Every structure is written in structure tokens, then in C-alpha cells.
Amino acid sequence: MKSNEFLQIFSNPLTTVYYLTVSIALSLLIAHTYRKTYKGISYSQSFVTSLVMLLPLVSLIINIVNNNVARAIGVFGAFSIIRFRTPIKDSRDMIYIFWSLGVGLAIGAGEVGIGISATIFMAAAAFILHLTNYGIVNQFDYLLIYNLKTQENQIEKINKKIDQLSKAKEILNIQSDKKGENIEVSLNLKLKKGIGPDQILSQLQKNKGVSEINITPTQNTAEF
To answer: What share of the chain has pLDDT > 90, as a percent?
Structure first.
């Protein structure tokens, strides 16, 4: 066997390994960007793991197709049988999926430079938007949720105490349970200088009718 024939046999596997190596590295950068800039409360480790695996998978599929129409029809025919039932909770998650798909298509098509530069550019843009808190309208310090027995009827008294400790307050929701025995109050708070969540907690705990107090920091604009 001639040397050029030997290299031709192993050229595609070596190229595939190279593409997969680059794909894994870029997918780890995308997943890291997602983890560091995530602001919601429904973080999913499985979604991050899927991001890492998605990019090399797309790269592999495009590399297999490689301008072969018959292969393309077979691959996409097989994928058309699969039904994906996992709901996307956040529109931002969809952006990261398309980001991974786009870079995977570029790597699989042999445009490694485009894939690398696009990933770096998008990661930089994501971090800039995260650090500048772009798009926020109102910013509060904490989300406060507590339950109150309706028989106690101390909501006005509680609101006065909260007003004494906070600069701004925004009531998000007040709802009663089915039996009408308890109400759940949700509100955003911006605390005065030197006031911490422990002081809000201690003030609420002094009221007998208050229970299940939950204070969540929202400086990172957590979405609910």
C-alpha cells in the first residue's frame, strides 16, 4: 500500500477527532458562560451537560454528511422520527441552544476559525450584558414571601414595619389559600442603608400570625 493511500484512509478519522476536540473545548466555554451569567432560579445541571454534548454531536453529524446528499437524507430522515418533548423554560436557554448549533455547523463544515471566533465573540457579549445588567427596569434588593393567618389581620401593622426598614416596596401578589385561613404575600424590597435581611426576618417573626418567611436576594435580577 502506498503512503498516500494509507494517509487517505486515516485522514477522515483524524479530521473527525480534531473537529470533536475543538468542539468539546468550545462547548465547555459556552457552558461556562451559561453558568456564570445565569440569573434564574430553575438552574438545570442536565441542561448544561446537554450544551456540552450538543455542539460536538452537531459537528459530528455535519462531518458525516460532508456534501453527500444520500447521507444527508438518511441522517435527517432518522432525526425526523425523534420527538423532543423537553420544554424550554427560558428564552435565553434557546439562544444557547442555537449558539451551540451554529458553532457545531461551522466546525463540522470545516470552518474552525469561524466557530472559534464566533464563540469568543458571543461569550464576550454575554459577559458584558451580564456585568452591565442590561435590560433591567427596576432593581430591588430582595424578594420577600411570607404567609399570614387571616384571623390575625396584621397585614397593615407588618407593612408599617417593612416601610420603616425599606427605601422602596413593590407588592407583587397577595393570594389566599382554598380554605381562606392563610394569605401569601409576595413583594420586592429595596432596603435602607445598613439594613439587612436578618432585621426584616426578626421583625416578621415577632408576629404570631406570620409563618414560612422566605427572603431571596435579587441583586442579580433573578427571574421567576
So the answer is: 20
82 shares a domain with 125: yes
Q: Read off the amino acid at residue 125.
A: A
38: left (phi over 0), alpha (psi -120 to 50) or beta: beta
Give tens-digit pLDDT for 112-141.
999 999 999 999 999 998 888 777 665 677
Looking at the DSSP assignment, which residues form a beta bridge with residue 186? 145, 173
Cα 110 from chain centroid (whole Å): 29
Q: What stretches of 45-153 show up as alpha helix (H) in DSSP?
A: 45-65, 69-81, 91-108, 112-131
pLDDT of residue 199: 80
Strands 142-149 and 166-176, by their bridges, are unpaired
Whether 224 maps to a domain, the answer reads no
**C-alpha cell of residue 205:** 417573626
The set of cell numbers assigned to 93 is 436557554
Q: Has residue 27 got a pLDDT over 50? A: yes
Count of the separate structural domains present in the chain: 2
